[in-house]
C-alpha cells in the first residue's frame, strides 16, 4: 500500500518554542492531508484539513495561529506548533488518502516541558 | 453529520478463541466504513474497508467484518485470536467515497488477548 512518512517520531521542546512536524506521502500525490490529535487512551480528533496550494481548514476550537499548517507541495504538509505549552503535549498523526483509502503517518509524540 | 460508536472500551479474550469488536455508525447516505489497528506510539494500520458489494469483508491478519445495514453495524471479527492481536482498534466512517473528506473515528476499543 501507499506510504505516509511523518517526522519526527518524537520531540521534546521547551515551553515557548515552536516545533515543526512533517508529513510526506512517499509514493503518491495528495492534494489533501489531514492532521489529527490523540490524547492518551482517546480517539483521534481531526484538527485540520490541509489543502495543497491553499489555506488549511481548521476544525472548531482549533487555534489557527497556534497550529500553523502549510501544504506547499503535493507530497508534503507541515504542522508547526507555535509557542508550545505543556497542554500541547500530545500525539499528532497525519493522514493522506489515495482513492478511497486513508494512510497514516507513524505519529509524532510531542512533549512540552 | 456522521458518527461512530464503539460501545466497549475494552475487550478481553483468550488466545485461540473468536473475537468480536463492535461498531455501529450513523451517516446520511451510503456509509464507507473502515477498521484500523494502532500499536503503542504508532500510527494507524489499515485492516479492512467496506465500500460496496459483499457484506462480509475480509482484511489483513485474518480479520473480517460484516456490514449490516439494518442494524447500522460493522463489527470486526476474527475466528481465532492471537496474543499479538492485542492493540487498540478503531472503527471509522466516511460519508463520501472521496479521499478528500476526513474519516470520523470511534473512541477505540482496546483488545487484550490472554495466553
Description:
The complex is a heterodimer of chains A (113) and B (115). With 113 residues, chain A is mainly β. Chain A is built from no helices and eleven strands. In chain A, the strands form two sheets. In chain A, strands 2, 4, 5, 6, 9, 10 and 11 form a seven-stranded mixed beta sheet that branches. In chain A, strands 1-3-8-7 form a four-stranded antiparallel beta sheet, with no helix packed on it. In chain A, β4 and β5 form a beta hairpin. The radius of gyration of chain A is 13 Å and the shape is globular. The termini of chain A are far apart. By secondary structure, chain B is mainly beta. Chain B is 0% helix and 50% strand. Chain B is globular. The mean pLDDT of chain B is 93.
Summarize the structure.
Chain A is mostly beta strands and 113 residues long.
Mean pLDDT of chain B equals: 93
Low-confidence stretches of chain A: none
Shape of chain B: globular
Largest sheet of chain A: 7 strands, mixed
Largest interface: A-B, 29 and 26 residues
Oligomer type: heterodimer
Can you give the mean pLDDT of chain A? 93
| Structure class of chain B | mainly beta
Q: Work out the radius of gyration of chain A.
A: 13 Å
Q: How many helices of chain A in DSSP terms?
A: 0
Give the N-to-C terminal Cα separation of chain A: 37 Å
| End-to-end separation of chain B | 41 Å
Low-confidence stretches of chain B: none
Q: Structural class of the secondary elements of chain A? A: mainly beta
As a percent range, the share of strand residues of chain B is: over 45%
| Strand content range of chain A | over 45%
Order of helices and strands of chain A: EEEEEEEEEEE
Structural descriptors:
heterodimer; A: 113 residues; mainly beta; seven-stranded mixed beta sheet; four-stranded antiparallel beta sheet; globular; B: 115 residues; six-stranded mixed beta sheet; 50% strand
Write the layout of secondary structure elements.
The complex is a heterodimer of chains A (113) and B (115).
Chain A lengths: L3 E4 L2 E4 L5 E7 L6 E7 L5 E8 L5 E2 L8 E7 L2 E6 L8 E9 L2 E4 L3 E5 L1
Parallel strand pairs in A: 2-11
Antiparallel strand pairs in A: 1-3, 3-8, 4-5, 4-9, 5-6, 7-8, 9-10, 9-11
Chain B lengths: L2 E3 L4 E5 L4 E3 L2 E3 L5 E7 L5 E7 L5 E3 L5 E5 L4 E6 L8 E8 L9 E2 L3 E6 L1
Parallel strand pairs in B: 2-12
Antiparallel strand pairs in B: 1-4, 3-9, 5-6, 5-10, 7-8, 8-9, 10-11, 10-12
Amino acid at each position: 500500500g501507499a506510504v505516509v512518512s511523518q517526522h519526527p517520531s518524537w520531540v521534546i521542546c521547551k515551553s515557548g518554542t515552536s516545533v515543526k512536524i512533517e508529513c510526506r506521502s512517499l509514493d503518491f500525490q495528495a492534494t489533501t492531508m489531514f492532521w489529527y490529535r490523540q490524547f492518551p487512551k482517546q480517539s483521534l480528533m481531526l484538527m485540520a484539513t490541509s489543502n495543497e496550494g491553499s489555506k488549511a481548514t481548521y476544525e472548531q476550537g482549533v487555534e489557527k495561529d497556534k497550529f500553523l499548517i502549510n501544504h506547499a507541495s503535493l507530497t508534503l504538509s507541515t504542522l508547526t506548533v507555535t509557542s508550545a505549552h505543556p497542554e500541547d503535549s500530545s500525539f499528532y498523526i497525519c493522514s493522506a488518502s489515495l482513492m478511497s483509502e486513508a494512510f497514516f503517518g507513524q505519529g509524532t509524540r510531542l512533549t512540552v516541558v | 453529520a456522521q458518527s461512530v460508536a464503539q460501545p466497549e472500551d475494552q475487550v478481553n479474550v483468550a488466545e485461540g478463541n473468536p473475537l468480536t469488536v463492535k461498531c455501529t455508525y450513523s451517516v446520511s447516505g451510503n456509509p464507507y466504513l473502515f477498521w484500523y489497528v494502532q500499536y503503542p506510539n504508532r500510527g494507524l494500520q489499515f485492516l479492512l474497508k467496506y465500500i460496496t458489494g459483499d457484506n462480509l469483508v475480509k482484511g489483513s491478519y485474518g480479520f473480517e467484518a460484516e456490514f449490516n445495514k439494518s442494524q447500522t453495524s460493522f463489527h470486526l471479527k476474527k475466528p481465532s485470536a492471537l496474543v499479538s492481536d492485542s492493540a487498540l482498534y478503531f472503527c471509522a466512517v466516511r460519508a463520501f467515497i472521496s479521499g478528500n473528506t476526513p474519516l470520523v473515528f470511534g473512541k477505540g476499543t482496546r483488545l487484550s488477548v490472554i495466553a
